[in-house]
UniProtKB/TrEMBL annotation:
Gene3D superfamilies: 3.40.50.1970, Dehydroquinate synthase-like - alpha domain. The keyword S-adenosyl-L-methionine does not apply. The lineage of its organism: Bacteria, Bacillati, Bacillota, Clostridia, Eubacteriales. It comes from the Bacteria. This is Iron-containing alcohol dehydrogenase. Residues 9-180 form the Alcohol dehydrogenase iron-type/glycerol dehydrogenase GldA domain. Keywords: Oxidoreductase. It holds the Pfam family Fe-ADH. Transmembrane segments: none annotated. InterPro entries: ADH_Fe/GldA, ADH_Fe_C, BDH-like.
Length: 396
C-alpha cells in the first residue's frame, strides 16, 4: 500500500422507511431552520416531500423549500437559493434527490456561509479557499453520482456553459438517508445513467499509475462486479429492491474515496464528459459512456497489464492462451458492450449531439483544457492534442 489519508464522516442511514428519521437527524446536529432543496415533481407526486416535511415539523424544525433543480445544475438556481436561504435564515440544507440536487444544496451552503465572496469567481474558480459552509443532509432518490458521501460538487455557469467542480471536506454531508424503495419508479434511462456513473467513479480511480495497492484494487474490482450484475438485474426487473439496494450502496462507496486509496485519481473520462454535458445538456452518465471506450483505447499502452487485469478480475475473462494485449482489448470491448446493453451511448452519434465539426471538436478541447491552462488525467497525462484525438475517436 502507498501512503494515503481517508476521511468519510457521513453517517449512512440505510433501509426501508429511513426518510422518517430526517427531522431527528437534523435536530440532533443543531439544525433548526432548514432549506429543503429538491428537483422536479416526482418528490411531490410520490409523497416523499410531504413525508419529509412532516418529519421536520414533528422535530420542531422550521423549513422552506426550493424546487426546480435540473440535471447539470445551474449557477443561477444556486444564486436564487442563496438569497432564499439568507432571507429564511437557514442554518441547515437538506437535499432530496440525486447528484444534481445534492450539488445544488452544497453550493447554496457555501454561498450562505461566505456572503462576502462571489460563489463562482472566488470559490468555484478557486481564487479563495473554501473555509466554511453550512451543514447538509441528504435523502437520496437516485443511485448514481455518489455526492451523498463525496467531497465534491459540480455546477454549470449559465451564460458561458463552463462546468466546474469544487472539492472540499466541508462538502461531505452530515448524513445520508438511503432507502432503496425510493428508487422503485425511476425511469430505465436514469437507472442506466446511474450504473455508468458509479462504474466511472470507480474506474477513474482504478486506472491510475500506481499498481501496488492490492486491497484498494480488490475493493474496486468487487464493487464493479456487483454494479455490473446488479445493473443487469435492475434493467431486466425494474424496481427490484435487491438490485437497487446494491446500486445505492455502491454509489456511495464509489465516490467517498475508498476505492482509490493510495492511488492518484485520473478522472480524465469525467473531464471529457463534463464538456459534452455542459455544451449539449446531455445526461452526465451518458456522456461518460460516450467517451470511455475512446479514452480507453487511446490510453491502452500506458499500462496494458492494467486493462488485462481489469478483464480477468472484473469481466471474468479467461487468460488461457491469450496475450496481455488481447485480454486488455477484450476488457475494453466487454465494457463498451455492457454500456450498449444498458442502451447507453458509446459515441457522439449515439449520444444524440450528432457528428461534430473539426471546429466544434477544437472548442470542446479548449474548454476541457480550461482554455489552455491544464492537462487532465494521471493514468496517462493528456494535453490538448491528446484530448482532441480522443474526441475525434468518439466522433462517429
Amino acid at each position: 500500500m502507498e501512503a494515503f489519508q481517508f476521511y468519510s464522516p457521513t453517517q449512512i442511514i440505510f433501509g426501508r422507511g429511513t426518510e422518517e428519521q430526517v427531522g431527528e437527524q437534523i435536530a440532533r446536529r443543531g439544525g433548526s431552520r432548514v432549506l429543503v432543496v429538491y428537483g422536479g415533481q416526482s418528490a411531490v407526486k410520490s409523497g416523499l416531500l410531504s413525508r419529509v416535511l412532516a418529519s421536520l415539523e414533528q422535530s420542531g424544525l422550521s423549513c422552506d423549500t426550493l424546487g426546480g433543480v435540473k440535471p447539470n445544475p445551474r449557477l443561477s438556481l444556486v444564486l436564487s437559493g442563496i438569497q432564499r436561504a439568507e432571507a429564511f435564515q437557514a442554518n441547515f440544507l437538506l437535499a432530496i434527490g440525486g447528484g444534481s440536487v445534492i450539488d445544488t444544496a452544497k453550493a447554496i451552503a457555501d454561498g450562505v456561509a461566505n456572503p462576502e465572496l462571489d460563489l463562482w469567481d472566488d470559490l468555484w474558480m478557486k481564487k479563495v479557499p473554501l473555509e466554511r459552509s453550512l451543514p447538509v443532509g441528504v435523502v437520496l432518490t437516485i443511485p448514481a453520482a455518489g455526492s451523498e458521501s463525496s467531497d465534491s460538487a459540480v455546477l454549470t455557469k449559465d451564460d458561458t456553459l463552463e462546468k466546474r467542480g469544487l472539492g472540499s471536506d466541508l462538502h461531505r454531508p452530515r448524513f445520508a438517508i438511503l432507502n432503496p424503495d425510493l428508487t422503485a419508479t425511476l425511469p430505465r434511462y436514469q437507472v442506466a445513467c446511474g450504473v455508468v456513473d458509479i462504474m466511472s467513479h470507480t474506474m477513474d480511480r482504478y486506472f491510475n499509475p500506481i499498481t501496488t495497492n492490492q486491497l484498494t484494487d480488490e475493493l474496486a474490482e468487487g464493487l464493479l462486479r456487483v454494479v455490473i450484475s446488479s445493473g443487469r438485474r435492475a434493467m431486466d426487473h425494474p424496481g427490484d429492491y435487491q438490485a437497487m439496494s446494491e446500486l445505492m450502496w455502491a454509489g456511495s462507496l464509489s465516490h467517498n474515496g475508498l476505492t482509490g486509496l493510495g492511488g492518484k485519481k485520473d478522472f480524465a473520462p469525467h473531464q471529457l464528459g463534463h464538456e459534452l454535458s455542459a455544451r449539449f445538456d446531455s445526461a452526465h452518465g451518458a456522456t461518460l459512456s460516450a467517451v470511455w471506450g475512446s479514452w480507453a483505447r487511446y490510453c491502452l499502452d500506458a499500462d496494458v497489464s492494467r486493462f488485462a487485469r481489469f478483464g480477468v478480475k472484473v469481466w471474468g475473462l479467461d487468460p488461457t492462451g491469450r496475450t496481455e494485449r488481447e485480454l486488455a482489448l477484450s476488457a475494453i470491448d466487454a465494457t463498451v458492450y455492457f454500456f450498449h446493453s444498458l442502451d447507453m451511448p458509446t459515441c457522439f452519434s449515439e449520444l444524440g449531439c450528432g457528428l461534430q465539426s473539426e471546429k466544434e471538436l477544437e472548442e470542446l478541447t479548449r474548454r476541457c483544457t480550461f482554455f489552455g491552462t491544464r492537462t487532465i488525467g494521471t493514468f496517462r497525462v493528456l494535453d490538448h492534442d491528446d484530448i482532441l484525438a480522443i474526441y475525434r475517436m468518439a466522433n462517429h
